Each structure stands twice: as structure tokens, then as C-alpha cells.
Amino acid sequence: MFLGHFATAYAAKKLAPRTSLGTLFAAAQLPDFVWPWLLLAGVEHVSIVPGDTAFTPLRFDSYPISHSLVTIAAMGAAFGAAHFWRKRRALDALVLALLPVGHWVLDFFSHRPDMPLWPGGPRLGLGLWNSVPATITIELLLFAASLGVALSATQSRDRFGRWGFAGLAAFLLVIYAANVTSPPPPSVDAIAWAGAIGSLVFLVLAVWVDRHRQPKADASPVSS
Ligand SMILES: [Zn+2]
Question: Is the pTM of this model over 0.85?
Fold first, then answer.
């Protein structure tokens, strides 16, 4: 899943409109933020096996820390608690704690049975990735619906808020299309660095776009 994870972050704007889209991106992507560094450290393992599932050439051999349900729930709880400690907004903190769990659930739907319940525990997965058309259809529908939700919860402060929002969504779609159509990555290091840098870029862009938007409830009648 790629767009699906961002979709949960966009949709969460409805429940936590005062929390930056960047923070919501970070929560929804938390497992994939941690994963590249654990790959580079040799703690977790992936192989490049074209055809492993129809959708991706990646075979996720072992990722007990970044992608087990129990460790993800713990990471989410820590993330939510840290946010609550700083901002004292209980619902927002709860949303931030649950977004990483939502990441696990989406990966559980898409991966073949390689998603551990806990480190060393049983591995589950429903294998949506065995069908390319089904994967793309579901991800695009989730993404489109979530953009609608985010737009209903926030409005732009200025033209950067409007065009930046559209530009970020378009950028995510372009990267998704590139991922789907490009040949298998050359090496595991290339996967890790692309993941580490890519998620950081999306995060920075989301923080920037969010600064130019505001919750609809906060809007004064004259602003647009
Ligand atoms: Zn993931």
C-alpha cells in the first residue's frame, strides 16, 4: 500500500483538523519510516523477487519490529502520548495512536501472509497484491475519498493552500504511478534510501501545505 496509507492520514483531518497533515502523514507512515533504517542496519530483511506478488517485486522476509501489530501499536501509543503531552488534545492523540494500527490493517489486506502479529508470532495477510487491477482500484478510490474528506474539513488560507494541496496530491499520484510502472529496484539499499528520503519529502511537503490551510470551523467569513 502506498496511496492507501496517505488516504488514512488525509481522512483523519476530519477527526483532528487542528493537527498538521504532516503529523498525520508521520503517524500513518510510522512503520514505513522505521523500516528503511532497520533494513540498512541489517535488522530487518527484504528480497527483490519479481512476481512474488503481482503488484510488487518485494518479498518481505522479516520485519518483526517495523511491521508487527504489537510493536506498531506500541509505536502508535508512544506517538499519540508524545503529541498529547505537547498539545493536550485527547482526540487528536487517539487518532495519532490509531493511524499506525490502520497502517498494519491496510498492509494486512494487501500483503501475502507476511505481517506478524508480534515479533516471531504468526504472520497474516489477505493478498490483495495478487491482483494489480484490484490493488490500484481500491487505492485510488480510498485516496480520492480521503481527499474529499480532507477538503470538507479544511480550507485554504491563501493560494498556496489551494495549489499546494492539489500539487501534493498530484505528486503522490505521480510517485505511485512511477512505482507501479518502473522495473524492480536494483538493490535493497536502493529500496531503503528511496523509502527513507521519500517519506521525509512527503512529510515536509505536507507540513508546508498544512501551514497554508486551516480547519473550516476556524475560518472567518472574509477568508477564502
Ligand atoms: Zn508498511
Answer: yes
